Amino acid sequence: MFKKNSLILKVMFSMLFVSGITFAEEAEKVIQKPEGFMAVLTVIPLIIIIFMLYKKFDMLVAGFVGGALAMVIGKISLGEANGILLKSIPAMLTITVPIINSALAMAVFKSGGYTSALSLVKRGIKGKVEYLAAFIVILQAAATYMSGIGGGSAMVIAPLAFAAVGAIPELIAAMSIAAAVCFTTSPASLESSIVSKLSNIPVAEYVSMMKIFALVFTILAIALGYYGARKRKVIFKEDHEDEFSSKSNKELFIMTIPTIFLLFAVIFGPFVNQIAGMPLISPLVYSIVTIILIALCTKLSLGESSNSMVEGSNYILVRLFSVGIFLTFINIIGETGAFAAIVSVAEIAPKSLVVPVAVLAGFLVGVPAGAYVGSILTLVIPIAVSLGFSPVELGFVAIGVGLGSQMSFVNITMQALSSGFRIPIIDVVKGNSKWILGCLGILLVISYFV
């Protein structure tokens, strides 16, 4: 076990040398690039943070130690640090859609909607749980691609997966991979918009060129989810009270209606809105409809349904507040200028390796700083554009950043998976590591030859 953790720790240490974050609204802020020994010195706080995290220190304690050291190294005043704090926490708490989806998912879960759905599926696939695992990955990919938001989709789908098969590491990694490749190539995502804006490439053109590569990695993710469930010989998790086994298919289907509607709203809502030319299925609309459906189709009353939604928001709000504080320390480190120096490494790479190096740099930047992938792209994409990258090559860089974010403690999709599968986020990171790194290897090979 120690050897395994040591290997992961070494990998994470290497990642620190190209990591960082900035807020999207401050993308144009120029931070002076440190030179020589100073460039190396600014990386030390990140090394300390990751080391402490893997030694099981509290996330905020580790962040405070690294952030305080960065303030000394970068000569950042308390006033400046306070300003960063007051931007970091609100930025996390304004991630509204994932908060709403998490609360609704918990309300559906409490009503028995997920269990009834799984009881129906169990009767239909006759114990072939690997097919359900593959289908869950498809749901995650579809929901993310349609909405452009991985975390909001995972908030709804992860509890469903946990209720069915438990916390299978390969399934969690597969959902992460599917989310990463889909939100970085989605026509509805912030990330695609940023690539389009910074490179003057129409979003539609960028999305069209990246479809085949997104599909390849999505298929790999689906296969991984299938493999994990089959390898571990997982069976359906049973309800200890077994209250659903005696119900008819009709009764189970009625109880499943809120689940079906919520999944439909998350996955196909953006598509329906685009066709309708108006927000027909908005968070407000599907929140109200879901609560009403829970009251009509399950044993919960309207008041209980509403309260279960409010109570369901507790976990995600607490986690986002904690992540906001931790993100403050990451952003303080960013103010030292280390990231400006590191991202520019691609400029000095040999011509034949410049694209893979840029992809690798993007990945490594995303690991400890993946709360806002769009913000990271504002650091990396301008350099890639200046080097004459094609739209596809820019897409490879974006996917690289997305994959890196799926090993980040501050990424909202990772928080969603931690919450939905009810495991510490450190376990999500460890479980994802080898599969994410494998996908990175494939992406580097593709970026070299394409």
UniProtKB/TrEMBL annotation:
The keyword Mitochondrion does not apply. Keywords: Membrane, Transmembrane, Transmembrane helix. The chain crosses the membrane at residues 6-24, 36-54, 60-78, 90-109, 129-148, 206-227, 252-272, 284-302, 314-333, 353-380, 392-412, 432-449. The keyword Transmembrane helix applies. This is Citrate transporter. It comes from Sebaldella termitidis (strain ATCC 33386 / NCTC 11300). The lineage of its organism: Bacteria, Fusobacteriati, Fusobacteriota, Fusobacteriia, Fusobacteriales.
